[in-house]
Design brief:
The chain is α/β, with parallel strands linked by helices. Helix content is 31%, strand content 22%. The mean pLDDT is 91. The protein binds zinc ion (ZN).
Length: 333
């Protein structure tokens, strides 16, 4: 053990043995926006040496006001890869995996059993239900955290030992009923504050197991300087942690509405696209560019972003059927 962690080893809550235990732990970071990258950085600096990063998106200029791992040179790069590169520079001995894919049921089933804990860097509740299902099914602890505008929420979850996300929110909200950060905005320091709370809870779960304050939902508003905690009870009728019905792990719709007027189309099953070949085919039809392993095309008044795993983001179309038709016509059937 080098001197890097001396000040943390002094803590009776950690100690030399605890620090060695942290170095062996493997944590999945679901989503690499502001919340996910700040949490990943805090865990890495605290001595968690194995991180699995998952994010489907690219760094955009409007992310930079709240993410300290990314700079202007990262705009246009996959978030998971840009974050992994910065984290490796912070601790060259750490093992950082980057997955540029959509976090869906099959991926959760593949990755969650391989880690000790999952932390939340997601921007939608739908995918959090996928994480919750996978963590309950595979008996892995996770930390739920969400941010919006000037506030955020966080709660540690240990399946069977305390309430799960579905005990807290039994039913998914109707599409469009919860504002996104594209609509409601986000104050720059809010994700970092909630990421610090999330990382603290994650370290406690990793070091102490299910004795951590399970079932305490913490609310923090940075603008009003308001902190509240609410005790959440296990729901005896919870379909997930009591009924063991993991509905969110089964395949959902191939079209997903994302933050900021973007539709995402998923391929049928697992796909690997030859983007060079696709670029050559589409270049006769519109403006096409291949950058950082991602294809950008402007076709029929829409902007398409295509990833090698077959996913596409469609901007400029509001109708999901039209977006699906464009995908089928130009990208893959
Ligand atoms: Zn539950």
């Amino acid at each position: 053990m080098n001197g890097r962690f001396l000040r943390q080893i002094v803590l009776p809550q950690v100690g030399a043995e605890g620090q060695r235990r942290l170095a062996r732990k493997r944590v999945l970071v679901a989503g690499c926006g502001a919340l996910g990258t700040h949490t990943a950085e805090a865990l890495l600096r605290a001595g968690v040496r194995h991180l699995v990063l998952v994010d489907r998106d690219l760094v955009e200029e409007h992310n930079l006001h709240r993410v300290s791992l990314f700079g202007p040179a990262d705009v246009g790069r996959p978030k998971a890869e840009a974050a992994a590169e910065r984290l490796r520079a912070l601790d060259p001995e750490a093992q950082i995996e980057a997955h540029v894919v959509h976090f869906d049921g099959p991926l959760a089933e593949e990755l969650v059993p391989t880690v000790d804990l999952v932390v939340d860097g997601l921007d939608n509740l739908e995918t959090r239900y996928v994480v919750n299902d996978a963590c309950v099914k595979h008996e892995k602890p996770w930390v739920y955290t969400a941010v919006l505008a000037t506030y955020g929420l966080t709660m540690a979850i240990w399946p069977e030992r305390g309430p799960c996300l579905r005990c807290l929110f039994p039913n998914p909200p109707a599409p469009g009923s919860i504002p996104t950060c594209a609509e409601a905005g986000i104050l720059g320091p809010v994700p970092k504050a909630l990421a610090a709370l999330q990382a603290g809870l994650a370290l406690r779960l990793l070091l102490r197991g299910p004795e951590a304050p399970l079932g305490t939902l913490l609310y923090l508003d940075l603008w009003e300087l308001r902190v509240q905690t609410v005790e959440v009870k296990r729901n005896p009728a919870c379909p997930t942690c009591v009924g063991h019905d993991f509905a969110f792990l089964r395949e959902g719709s191939r079209v997903v509405f994302l933050c900021g007027d973007v539709l995402q189309i998923l391929p049928k099953g697992k796909a690997v696209l030859d983007l060079g070949d696709l670029a050559a085919r589409l270049s006769a039809l519109g403006r096409v560019e291949l950058r950082h392993g991602v294809l950008f095309a402007e076709l029929e008044g829409t902007a398409l972003t295509v990833f090698a795993d077959g996913r596409a983001l469609v901007k400029g179309v509001k109708d999901p059927q039209r977006a699906q038709a464009l995908y089928d016509q130009y990208i893959a059937r």
